[in-house]
Sequence to fold (127 residues):
Amino acid sequence: MKRRVEVASEWGAGIGYSRAVRAGNLVIVSGTSAGGPAGVSHKGDAEGQAELVLQRIGEALDAVGASLEDVVETRVFLRDMADWQAVGNAHARAFASTRPATTLLQAGALIDPDMLVEIAATAIVGE
Fold:
């Protein structure tokens, strides 16, 4: 049986996706950004955006009975590779003990010009 975490904006229905899906012990968290109904938080601050994104990923995981400790892989998409270290700092704090496999790349334009980072994650519960 699958459990889903819905997207709390028009994007979920408009695009047809969930924030996270758990199937058995596997959890996939969709690309998550610092955007919201009031716009993008932490404009111009890649590290601040990454911290918020990782917090949101943690909340989505929690909603399906998982945690950041269960994350085995992250995929980090940057608007500009110059922000790699700032985003990496936030990532390192969130995953200091878990150290998931990670891909970090420059994606270029994200859906909103103020978004500097988007992160997706995969977790396995009970490993």
In short: The chain has one domain: 2-124. The chain has a mean pLDDT of 93. The two ends are 19 Å apart (CA to CA).
